[in-house]
């Protein structure tokens, strides 16, 4: 097989191997941050039951793995979750919006597809309407005949611009270009 034929197969194989190797991996030590409106939910990477949360240096009263900040005002915050001797820190700089709407991937894909279909429809309509108008006479009332196109006669020659004839070269001999 030639190299050009093998490249798509190689790409497909690399994608398949890459996804199977990532299935079982869970990233250790990473926070999970979810934002919905003005509510921010943070999940601690520690698996223990008794987790202590610190926000701006103050210990919070929750002991769960998930920490929920309601009515967050988009100010940066230093968070940490700890259990025993293990501690993980997070700098939270989440921008929240009270009037924003959440869109899932399917809705966005539907909007883009609908936009493309409408654009294609307008393109086809313009093509067919412009195609059918090519052979029609205009409504402006042209007085020219629409049959076979008549050719214009050649322009009347101007005697001031006649070509130089063989016997008249001496008249123009003194018009040689001068050196400047």
What attributes does this structure have?
7 strands; 3-stranded antiparallel beta sheet; alpha+beta; 19% strand; 4-stranded antiparallel beta sheet; single chain; elongated; 180 residues
Describe the structure.
By secondary structure, the chain is α+β, with helices and mostly antiparallel strands. It is 28% helix and 19% strand. It has helices at 3-23, 105-133, and strands at 32-36, 39-43, 52-55, 58-59, 66-69, 77-83, 86-92. It has a four-stranded antiparallel β-sheet, with no helix packed on it. A three-stranded antiparallel β-sheet has the order 1-2-5, with no helix packed on it. Strand 3 and strand 4 form a beta hairpin. The radius of gyration is 40 Å and the shape is elongated.
Termini gap: 71 Å
Biggest sheet: strands side by side, in what order?
4-3-6-7
Q: Which sequence of SSEs, written as H and E, runs from N to C? A: HEEEEEEEH
Percent helix, as a range, is 25-40%
**Count of alpha and pi helical runs:** 2
Could you say which structural class the secondary elements and strand pairing correspond to?
Answer: alpha+beta
Task: Offer a concise description of the structure.
This protein has 180 residues and is α+β, with helices and mostly antiparallel strands. It has 2 helices and 7 strands; from the N terminus they run H-E-E-E-E-E-E-E-H.
């Amino acid at each position: 097989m030639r190299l050009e034929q093998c490249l798509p197969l190689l790409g497909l194989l690399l994608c398949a191997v890459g996804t199977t190797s990532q299935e079982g991996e869970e990233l250790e030590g990473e926070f999970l941050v979810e934002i919905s409106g003005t509510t921010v939910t943070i999940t601690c990477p520690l698996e223990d039951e008794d987790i202590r949360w610190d926000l701006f240096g103050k210990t919070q009263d929750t002991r769960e793995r998930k920490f929920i900040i309601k009515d967050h005002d988009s100010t940066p915050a230093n968070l940490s979750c700890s259990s025993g001797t293990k501690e993980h820190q997070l700098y939270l700089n989440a921008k929240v919006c009270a009037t924003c709407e959440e869109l899932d991937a399917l809705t966005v894909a539907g909007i883009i597809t609908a936009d493309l279909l409408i654009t294609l429809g307008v393109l086809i309509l313009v093509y067919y309407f412009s195609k059918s108008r090519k052979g029609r006479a205009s409504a402006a009332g042209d007085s020219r005949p629409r049959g076979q196109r008549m050719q214009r006669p050649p322009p009347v020659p101007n005697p001031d611009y006649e070509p130089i004839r063989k016997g008249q070269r001496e008249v123009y001999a003194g018009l040689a270009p001068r050196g400047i």
